[in-house]
Amino acid sequence: MDSTKRFTPSDTVEPATKKIKTDSSTTEPTPTPTPAPTRDPQHGIAPIKAEFLVQRSATTGNPTATTSDDAAEASGTVSRVDARDSRDNNKPNKKKQKGGQNKARKFHFSQDEVKLCQSLVTVERESEFEGTVCEFAVMGAERDKEKGGRGRNEGKRGRNRRGRRGEREKEVEEESKQEDGVKQEEADVVMEDAGEGEKKAAPLRCKFEHGLRKYLEHKKEDILGVCPIWAERGVCANGWRCRWLSSHTKEENGELFLVKDEAKAQAYTEKRDRELVEKLANYKGTLGNKREEQPWEKDVLVGGFDDPYGEVVNNVPMALKIQVRKISRTEPQHNDEFPLKKTWVFQEWSNRVAADDRDDNRAAYVEPPPRPEEKRKLYFSKETPVLAPLTTTGNLPFRRLCISLGAKVTYSEMAMSTSLLQGHKPEWALLRAHTSELPTFAAQICSNKLDPAMKITEVLTSLFPSSAAGRHGLSFIDLNCGCPIDLVYQNGGGSALLDQQNKLARILKGMNYVSGETPITCKIRMGTKDNAPTAKKLVERVIRSGDVQAITLHGRSRQQRYTKAADWSYIAETSALVKSLKEQMDAETDTAAEKEGRERNPLFFLGNGDCYSHIDYYNAVDNAKVDTVMLARGALIKPWLFEEIEKGQYLDKTATERLDLMREYCRYGLECWGSDELGVATTRRFLMEWLSFTHRYVPIGILERLPAKIQDRPPAWKGRNEMETLLGSSDYRDWIKISEMFLGKAPDDFFFTPKHKSNAYDAGDMEAEG
């Protein structure tokens, strides 16, 4: 087949309701009955042209690895044993270790042998190093003074003694004011007797290097080429620690200087601001009324470690996370630092009112629940393809890449409500977003109880009240009711809520009550068991409660995981039910709304599952009648799927074009995690996480027929050139080679544990989790 042929939605098969019936008046002879068609022997195998197939001998190793897709949303234990895992073969008595969220995985992270003080990273010239005050040593001195001269390990009763719990928490709070991510420890300040009972501070000492030449002597050799960040922006916020340092430094009269291209930096900033203004102006939803700067935003430094370029939003300071941590230890109404008044009101109402009367007992609220017109309005349509929340791979750099390719709505990685309430830094980092994602960035949370779900919802909507304003942006909050992972399911969260519909309805109602003007949505599956779908019943109940503005249905059960194709016929039936309910409720509202002057927010229904081309996308929208489609694995395997949807045709990306996308991803990663030694290692790790999915892409130019199916697994194949073959390799060692094209040579001791054990080629050298 000619790969240059354009395919449009008109190529799709019409639904059964549009097929023309056979004219009974015709006199054509009755055809001889034919036997039922047998299953295609090539079912589930990608149809690759013969000239691109590779013949493997019987002694050849494992063919193209078949990847488990449970890791697309998260990873956990799988009940069945994979016979391909040679490490367990012929060992029937070996006890299987209990898995869970990839805890057995190992990664290589390297840091500088001698670390440069964070205060000096962006000092522009060598001569200014001596006059620069180390802010971290000063911070240590101030904290030491506040403790009355006691060192950091001394309690109220003397050195290394524990005081009361409240005093210990205060010390932890003071010590936590310095971010862990700054890679800077608190300076040791020694207080000495100065006579007559007075104390004076000894010279401030910082544990990190303050001499530029000494730091550069121990710094690893620079990566060849130009710094990707500096080449795009004209400035690199990692300064002297950048692994491409030689590309933006110069030496004059024996003195070293950092080079900054002011014109390029200003042009980049103006372009970024202009694009954001255009996005906000063209947004068809509502941005909200609370678009002023929040008090906590004043404490976030522009140009700091967590936001070096002033483009990261929802970057909450550590002091505020400590306040949130105290919420779980006290009753909401007694928490003076972070009161959750709405949560307390709803809890009181929920305990007081009988379960049968809750839905209609509006007057029982101390404060009436929000009316529909008080909520911001969301907008989903055929023109707004959605990127699904994806654990590990759906990080900020990948979301930026998808936004640049045409994604219109993005979600954070799934965050656990209890971890957020405990002030867990890695969990809060999941909520950070780039300004390019505004105003359609959503946070997805997972909770198994009403109390933590309400508390974290009120916290988030208090901190991020608008979809785009100042240093924050949150369009809506999504409750995950479909995660199939054992660790989540067994604790009563994720898809476990599908079997507890009363509990789920109460959680959504509580979240909607405390969220202010921020809308609430939910993502569900068909049910927990294959032959017992419950989504229709749940959808009807959720819609009638009026607590959500959008529902996303994944066309699989929890038991099914990814072993079978998504059931779009069930999604279509549910979509018809949603349409019928909306019409019925609109008719009921018309008679009552004339008296109360109320309006009902639009309700959107999204489909999810196996969308791998624009053909799949438009089939879902036109035939299943969903408002739009959420893309998950399809976007991981080929992020330009959003481009195909926008243009309505297949795009046969060359190996060079695909490498360009990887180069962009690496630049986004270096901007997010840093271009120093640790940042390069982190970017390399997450690039390889993405490669574990995108290597499964089979170029459409080597396929015998279209459309390609996401469930098809290819036999061994070779590309149209060596680079295309390399990009299709399932060997993680080839992924390391690809990473070296953008991030320099990997350390000799570098290792990476793939998420899928089927990718572990050298079982003796590494351990991979299934």
Describe this structure in words.
- This protein is an alpha/beta fold and 770 residues long.
- Among the domains are: 108-131 and 204-281, no CATH class; 373-557 and 566-589 and 600-647, TIM Barrel (Alpha-Beta Barrel), CATH 3.20.20; 652-769, no CATH class.
- It is 32% helix and 8% strand.
- The protein is built from 22 helices and 17 strands.
- The chain has helices spanning 135-146, 165-175, 212-218, 228-233, 262-282, 318-327, 341-352, 396-405, 417-421, 425-429, 450-463, 486-489, 501-514, 535-545, 568-596, 614-622, 633-637, 641-647, 655-673, 677-694, 722-727, 732-743; strands at 154-155, 158-159, 191-193, 199-201, 249-252, 255-258, 312-313, 386-387, 410-411, 415-416, 433-434, 441-446, 476-481, 520-527, 550-557, 604-608, 628-631.
- The strands form 5 sheets. Strands 8, 9, 10, 12, 13, 14, 15, 16 and 17 form a 9-stranded parallel β-sheet that branches. It has a two-stranded antiparallel sheet with strand order 1-2.
- Strand 15 (550-557), helix 15 and strand 16 (604-608) form a beta-alpha-beta unit.
- Helix 13 (501-514) packs parallel to helix 14 (535-545).
- The longest helix has 29 residues, at 568-596.
- It is globular, with a radius of gyration of 29 Å.
- The two termini are 37 Å apart.
- Residues 1-31, 33-39, 58-67, 71-101, 149-202 and 757-770 have low confidence and may be disordered.
- Belongs to the Dus family. Dus3 subfamily.
- Keywords: Coiled coil, Cytoplasm, Flavoprotein, FMN, Metal-binding, mRNA processing, NAD, NADP, Nucleus, Oxidoreductase, Repeat, tRNA processing, Zinc, Zinc-finger.
- Its cofactor is FMN.
- Pfam families: Dus, zf-CCCH_DUS3L.
